[in-house]
Fold this protein.
Amino acid sequence: MYPTIEPDTALGRALVAFFDVLEPLYASGEKGVFQVIVFGGCAVHIHTKARGSADVDAEIASHGYADRSDIVALLDEEAYVFADEEGVTQMLELDASFNTTLAPLHEDYEDRVLRLVTQSNIPNVEVYVASALDVAISKLGRFGERDQHDIQVLLSKIRVNPRPLGRGGKRAVR
């Protein structure tokens, strides 16, 4: 069981709704399980409520009979339009070129994901957000000005466990 995080901003709720388009495809269980891990600006926003992003950087996996390319095509069909807290129209679009192999990632990043609370809770659609630590690590690859700011904001959210893990006295980071 993964820890959960509930989106409480317009962008966070829009991110949930963005993936709701897949629920009819997976609701019956006949197509298997759809899993996505969100990275990038959307993940930064979920963790910090700082800045947003119009593109959804996500690692997408289908465990079953749905073809990944069909899923990407369905998500990429058109932008998801929503109103932010000020009532300004914004949109979300899948960044179909996003690939986790292009950014540095810790080998255990999947063990630290947080399950995004969705509206319908269909068990076959699993939407996760990479941990704050892993989003920060992924931003080291490009390391532009915005990435550096995101890293600083994300690192301010990470808790350090004061209990030593081993001989080296290293502390666990969550």
About this structure: Residues 4-173 form one domain. Residues 66 and 92 are 23 Å apart (CA to CA). Helices lie at 10-20, 23-26, 40-48, 68-75, 132-138, 145-155.
